[in-house]
Amino acid sequence: MRKETIRNQPDRHSEIDRQSISAMKKRWIYGVIIFLSITSIGLAIDWWSGLPEGEQATYVGRQTCFECHQKEAALWKKSDHDLAMNPATPEFVLGDFNDTELEHFGITSTMTHQGDKYFVTTQGPDGKRDRFEVKYVIGVHPLQQYLADLGRGKIQVLPVTWDTEQKRWYYASPDEPFGPDDPLHWTGSAQNWNHMCAECHTTDWSKNYDVASDTHNFSFSEMRVSCEACHGPGSIHVKLANSKSLFWDRHYGYGLAKLKGKDATAQLESCAPCHSHRRHVAPGHTPLDRFHDHYALSLLEDHLYHPDGQINEEVYVFGSFTQSKMYRKGVRCTDCHDPHSLKLKFPGNKLCTQCHLEAKYDVPSHHHHKVGSTGAACVECHMPSKTYMVVDPRRDHSLRIPRPDLTVKLGTPNACNQCHTKADETPEWAAKAVDKWYGTKRRDDPHYGEILAAGRAGKPEAERALIKLTREKEVGPIVRATAVSLLATRYHTPESRKVVERSLKSKEELVRLAALRGFEGWTPSSREEANDIGKLLAKGLTDSSRGVRSEVARILSSLPILPDTKQNQRSLKDALEEYKAGLLADGDQTGSHMSLGILYANQGDLKKAEQEFRTAIKLAPAVAGPRSNLAQLLEQQGRTEEARELRSKEAELLARDAKLLPENALLQYRLGLLYYLLGREDEAVTTLKKACELEPQSADFRLMLTLLYEKQQNWTQALESVDTLLQLQPSNPTFRHIKLNLQQKANPKGK
Length: 751
Fold this sequence. Notes:
Layout lengths: L1 H7 L3 H37 L13 H5 L3 H7 L8 E3 L12 E5 L2 E8 L2 E7 L5 E5 L2 E3 L4 E7 L5 E9 L4 E4 L21 H4 L12 E2 L4 E2 L10 H5 L3 H8 L22 H7 L6 E3 L14 E3 L20 H4 L3 H4 L21 H4 L4 H4 L2 H4 L10 H5 L2 E4 L3 E4 L8 H7 L5 H4 L7 H12 L9 H9 L5 H8 L7 H14 L3 H10 L5 H8 L10 H12 L7 H11 L9 H20 L4 H13 L3 H14 L6 H11 L3 H21 L4 H13 L3 H14 L4 H13 L3 H14 L4 H14 L5
Helix pairs in contact: 15-17, 18-19, 18-20, 19-20, 20-21, 20-22, 22-24, 24-25, 26-27, 27-28, 28-29, 29-30, 30-31, 31-32, 32-33, 33-34
């Protein structure tokens, strides 16, 4: 009994142990909770206590980057970006300067050196032979160019170029002689490094041109395309990397441009400023900025691209790439190119078969050529090249299907006939082969090239197709924008006007910019119409794109009304300041001062307008354009003799340009108009007729010729010309009125 009692008594020690363990668990849990709370608070404080808002990133130089990013640095060294520009020292100069000579249209250039200094003796800006020291070199493969300082910071590209493949000197413009008074002479504006080259061959470029002293006080942080040219100024990134924080900054991320995100836009817009044909909108672009806040991309203009969008002039990739299906599917530059070495990521067709099925595409049943041959290479068919600067082939990045049938229709080049050049291997022959291999169902008929070609010619039947093309999603934004531009400038119908006005609301900045062309030089027929258009355009004054805002402000400044509200008037003032800032940043350019002169003239400030036009002439005396603007301004003030002198000189310059570019219809038209203003009517008729022959679908050209015939009382020619005008635009009431008026004048007695 006693034993049982003892057995049933609680074990006091066990109870104490359990209580002790429970207390320990609680203390441990509380400790963990306290630790996690303190840690969480600390982490929250660490995350929250980032850099202050408004921190300005500055450039730190590539050596700072190399300290951590040694692998990337090794890839970048000796790349085209590293060798984009360097000092003229034995380390970088590739050309033969051992007293070598090169003659070009009677001008001899001599290349020499004295120790580690290099010189080119050639024709100078005054037409006399002089010696110029080579200060910098540009490029490494397949050519190298040389730069000289002509004083006051004006750097020019010397006329001789070194072919690094053939080891020879040559002229980049081998077929044409340019005198010192020509802008294409090596001392002229077209060969000025400060404006034409520097921004894309240096890092952190600032032009800093002073108009008053005609001095370039330029600066750059590095002489080459260095790390921060693509990633943006690195000071914030370095500060964050050196901090003890566990996080990147909540305001600035890791302090650089986000080039690897799911959206390819940031990376493409980091590359685009230097790999596109564009004009400046505003200075100071960094990879952290949006492209359209600083640049306006050129559309598929007839002097830049063939009608089907293939490259013609040197357009630097991006405009071509935006036409491609790859662009629309989110492919970016670094899918094919190593971002640091710039080399292709894979050799040959492996580059393409990383995405495209090898068994389907890298086989004779697809390319119909011997395996391993040139014709079997993807890029030869889908990225044909064109050679610029004599020795530099550039591939077309629109990545298109070869269309020899378009060569037959439009005269455009095609990949097949770049290799197949025998007499019987015609575009028709190539087109039949393509149809035999693939059938005709694969074609996009009509190809947008056919539509744009008809639109460029102003053919009436193209209008409906262009309108449809503006809504087509299976083409790039540059194609839609070009279609809008053609409707805006060539088709003055209610249907086209609706499309243009609708395009002002497009989500694509390029399309909105193109639509604004429809209001260029527009003259309202009534105050009510002016008010309506003013209200429509005023919405663009607060557009998200600086490029659109600036263009809207420029156009509104030429209208005879102000925006309807005080808010819009303030927005107009702000946008005009942005527009002027962009022009002043390129104060060394004649075009900037012409645009400023036009702006001031529109605002009624004739004194400032005259000053800007005269500055434009002073900067580039051999460039046609500013004298016409100044002559018109002076004529309005009754200064007719001065105006006539200016127009006479302008006619000389335009005649020179028209001779150099005889197939340029606009040049012929401008020259003909100038002859008319000078009273040289027979020359005006001849030149305007040539403009009409070159561009028979231009109603503007034909109208001017018709009115000139009327002035000469050449009724037969005038009536024939107005009939042609009405064939172009049968429903145009103005043209019908002109014909009626001509008929009455030609037969005043009703005979």
